[in-house]
Specification:
The protein has 14 helices and 12 strands. The protein is α/β, with parallel strands linked by helices. The chain has one domain: TIM Barrel, CATH 3.20.20. The chain has an 8-stranded parallel barrel with strand order 2-3-4-5-6-7-8-9, surrounded by 6 helices. The protein has a two-stranded antiparallel ribbon with strand order 1-12. Strands 10-11 form a two-stranded antiparallel ribbon. Strand 7, helix 11 and strand 8 form a beta-alpha-beta unit. It is globular, with a radius of gyration of 20 Å. The structure holds beta-D-glucopyranose. Beta-D-glucopyranose binds next to loops.
Length: about 425
């Protein structure tokens, strides 16, 4: 197997999201969703109120991240913990997060804070969340609270995680709260969220500057896919592919990152065109084959994860190029990972995707493996495993998987040697 060196300035990290790991009876939209009986019943039967028990195990978890050599940790704060009710701030939640962030910094880990990762406080959800343009002010107040509370500790921010997935899954009948099915709302939600991002981008910079800090990095992250026609000779399918790229990711990227609202999105806040990002945030997992727009087909002959998603490392380069052609900023891969229940091909997945970064000419500054721990998958609970570290649901015990040890070696070496590849990856195979 081939050795490779990673770009010397590439920071290697791992990511999580609050609702997927923390647990706790928090008044957020997904907890309410579970209480309404709307969550898929998965084999693990673990509640989102348990998840990976990180709220109680945070110190041990940061110690594990430090032992793995994780250089940067991408995590989210839970808006519903900070503001369980409209107009209030829970200082105890702020204190808890401050303690955790200060500890990760002490252990040499650079924090990257996501402000919104799919969950809303119930009061915000009830007010129509991002489908109601009047709610932008609530989001911006929350952003202000976050920067006031953590701005001295955190310089890197992700305003919103995957607005394209949030809007489609929640407003085109795909199983996320609020469980609506209305394409006009999908358009509106994304348009409103783009305005939230642009204004949060400006606000975070303004506030951190006033606090005396000049090294602030703000962006957001888009779920990007590689798209391919099912029939490689079909011109119609190839047009469908272009339309899928445009609708799913590129039009969205232009609205958020450039304030350029092309159809189907609308510039509700009358934003000027500009550059509203300091990096290009990409979450990349898979490729979709299409016959028509909206398809997500997987061919029998292609390697697949335990979620049934195709494993297609070259798609990462395609997505980076697509976004880099829209805005020339350094790339941060904020999520890249695989569902592999028994950790039998995760090392190979990491090896193959980092190899793409190693040979790319596009400047990539960060890579975050998703996820640091096995966590609560939105539609499938704890039964789907993406983590470098497993959680024993009965005892709460953590165990670093083989892939976690492999990732630690990559971080230590700044790449993969032939010996490491032979030892950790040579025996692994993807399933068809
Ligand atoms: C989301 C994560 C999720 C992952 C795997 C991404 O779309 O941002 O929260 O766990 O996909 O499903």
């Amino acid at each position: 197997m081939k050795a490779y060196r990673l770009p010397p300035n590439l920071i290697l990290g791992a990511g999580t999201a609050s609702a997927q790991i923390e647990g706790g009876n928090v008044p957020h939209s997904w907890n309410a969703w579970e209480k309404m009986g709307k969550l898929h019943k998965d084999a693990s039967k673990v509640s989102i109120r348990t998840a990976s028990m990180h709220w109680d195990h945070w110190k041990e978890d940061i110690d594990i991240a430090a032992a793995l050599g994780i250089q940067s940790y991408r995590f989210s704060i839970e808006w519903a913990r900070i503001q369980p009710e409209k107009g209030m701030v829970d200082q105890e939640a702020v204190r808890h997060y401050r303690e955790e962030i200060a500890y990760m910094i002490e252990r040499g880990i650079r924090p990257v804070m996501t402000l919104h990762h799919f969950t809303n406080p119930v009061w915000f959800e009830k007010a129509g969340a991002f489908a109601n343009p009047h709610n932008v002010k609530h989001f911006l107040r929350y952003v202000g609270i976050a920067v006031n509370s953590f701005g001295d500790l955190v310089s890197d921010y992700v305003t919103i995680n995957e607005p394209n997935v949030y809007a489609l899954m929640g407003y085109a009948g795909q199983g996320f709260p609020p469980g609506e099915n209305d394409l006009l709302k999908v358009r509106r939600v994304i348009s409103v969220m783009a305005g939230c991002h642009i204004r949060a981008y400006q606000k975070i910079h303004r506030m951190r500057k006033a606090m005396g800090y000049g090294d602030t990095k703000v962006g957001m992250t888009i779920h990007m896919r590689s798209f391919a026609p099912l029939d490689p000779y079909s011109r119609i399918e190839s047009h469908m592919c272009d339309a899928s790229k445009y609708l799913f990711q590129n039009a969205c990227a232009r609205a958020f990152l450039l304030g350029e609202f092309r159809p189907p999105f609308s510039n509700l806040g009358k934003f000027k065109k500009g550059v509203y990002c300091d990096y290009l945030g990409i979450n990349y997992y898979t490729r979709s084959h299409v016959v028509k727009v909206g398809d997500d087909l997987v061919r029998e002959q292609d390697p697949k994860s335990d979620y049934g998603w195709e494993i297609y490392p070259n798609g990462l380069e395609e997505c980076m190029k697509e976004l880099y052609d829209i805005v020339r900023k350094p790339v941060w891969i904020l999520e890249n990972g695989v569902c592999d229940d028994d950790d039998s091909f995760r090392s190979l997945f990491i090896y193959d995707h980092l190899a793409v970064i190693a040979r790319s000419e596009i400047p990539v500054e960060r890579y975050y493996y998703w996820s640091l721990f096995d966590n609560f998958e939105w539609l499938d609970g704890m039964s789907k495993k993406f983590g470098l570290v497993s959680i024993d649901q009965k005892t709460g015990a953590r165990r670093v998987k083989k892939s976690g040890h492999f990732y630690r070696e990559i971080i230590r070496l700044g790449g993969v040697t032939e010996e490491l590849a032979e030892r950790c990856v040579a025996d692994e195979k993807y399933h068809l």
